Amino acid sequence: MSENNLKKQINRVLSTLRQKERDILIKRFGLFGKKANTLASIGEKLGLTRERIRQIQNYALLKIKKSPLQDQGIFAQVQKISQRQGGLISTKNIKGDGLFILEASKNLKRIKGHKSLRDTFIEQKIEQKDIISAEKEIINFLEKRGKAVNPSKLLILKISKDLIKSLISVSSAFAFDWKGRVGLSNWREINPKSARDKSHYILKKEERPLHFTHIAELITRENFAGKNPTAATVHNELILDDRFVLVGRGIYALSSWGFKGGTVEEVIKDILIHHPQGLQRDAIIEEVLRAKLVTRNTVMMNLLVKKQFLKDKSGKYKLVK
C-alpha cells in the first residue's frame, strides 16, 4: 500500500472521532510522520492528567474497533497478514502509522505478561496460552538437541508451519546463526556476549585461522550486542581460553580443528612420542603443518638444530633418549 493511500485510510478512520480524540491519537502514535509522545507530555500540553489522556486514547481506540471500517481497507489487509503468519504480528520494527493500525484493529490483541513476546500482537480468537505453549515446545526441542538446527527440523512438531516460522522470528527466546540455523538466544554460540565467545563465533563462521586484529575487526562488523572489544582485549582473552590455539604470530585457530599450541619444537616432540619407530622428514613436516601455521623451512630448521631430534641411517627422525 502506498504512503498516500495509507494516509487517506487513517484520515478516514480518524474522521469518525471527536477533534480532541484525533489530536491525542496523532500525538500519541506519531501519525503522519510526526514524533510520538508520552501520555504525560500530551497531558502537560493539553492541561490534563496522564491518566485522563490514557482514558481518552483507549476510548477513541474502542470507538474505532466498533467501526464498520474494520471489515475493509487496511484493517482487512492486516487480518490477512496475521493469518499468513500463524496469527502473530510483531511490532519490533513497526511504529507510527503501522503501530496505530495494529492497536486499533478489533481482530488483534497484545500478548501481555510474557517477556519474550512482549512486542507481539495475536488474533483475538487465539488463546495467549496456546502461543506460549507452542513457543515452549520449540524451546524444549532445541534444548534436547543442544545445538542450532535448520528451521525445517522443527516441522516434526505438532505446530503449524506458519506459526513456527513466526515464533522463531518474533520471540526473543530464539536467534539465528550465520548459516540461518535457529537456536536459543541465551546460547553463547548463537548470541555471544564476551570477547571470547564473540571470537569463537567469528572463527567458526570464517572456518580458518585468523590474526587477532582481524578477529577484532570482524567482531565490530558483526554488530553483536554490547561493547566491541579492542584487538588487544581479543588477544589477551584468547590466550586464556583452551578453545583457542596460537598457531602463528598473532594467529589463532580453534583447538577443535586439530591445531596444537606450543612451539614447533614441542609439536615435533609430541609427534615423535606417538611414533617411537621414527618418521621421515616429509611425514613430520606434514604433521606439523596440520597443527601449526608455519613454513616448511621452519620445520626443517627445527629438525636440524634441535639436539633432541636424531636422524638415523634410514633417514627417519627419532627422539634422542
Keywords:
Arc Repressor Mutant, subunit A, 3-stranded antiparallel sheet, 321 residues, 14 helices
Tally of contiguous helical segments = 14
Shape: elongated
> What would you give as the CATH superfamily of the largest domain?
Winged helix-like DNA-binding domain superfamily/Winged helix DNA-binding domain
Secondary-structure element order, as H and E? HHHHHEHEEHHEEHEHHEEHEHHEE
- Lateral strand order in the biggest sheet: 1-3-2
Total domain modules: 4
| Largest pleated sheet | 3 strands, antiparallel
The assigned CATH architecture of the largest domain is: Orthogonal Bundle
- Outline the low-pLDDT stretches: none
Beta-strand share of residues: 5-15%
Q: Any idea of the CATH topology of the largest domain? A: Arc Repressor Mutant, subunit A
The N- to C-terminal Cα distance equals: 82 Å
CATH class descriptor name of the largest domain: Mainly Alpha
Structural class: mainly alpha
Description:
The protein is mainly alpha-helical. It has 4 domains: 1-111, Arc Repressor Mutant, subunit A (Orthogonal Bundle); 127-187; 195-257, Arc Repressor Mutant, subunit A, CATH 1.10.10; 264-319. Helix content is 49%, strand content 11%. It contains 14 helices and 11 strands. The chain has helices at residues 3-14, 19-29, 39-46, 50-65, 73-84, 97-104, 128-145, 161-170, 195-206, 212-222, 231-239, 264-273, 281-291, 296-305; strands at residues 88-90, 108-110, 120-123, 174-176, 182-184, 210-211, 244-248, 251-254, 279-280, 309-311, 316-319. The strands form 4 sheets. Strands 1-3-2 form a 3-stranded antiparallel beta sheet. The chain has a 3-stranded antiparallel beta sheet with strand order 6-8-7. The longest helix has 18 residues, at 128-145.
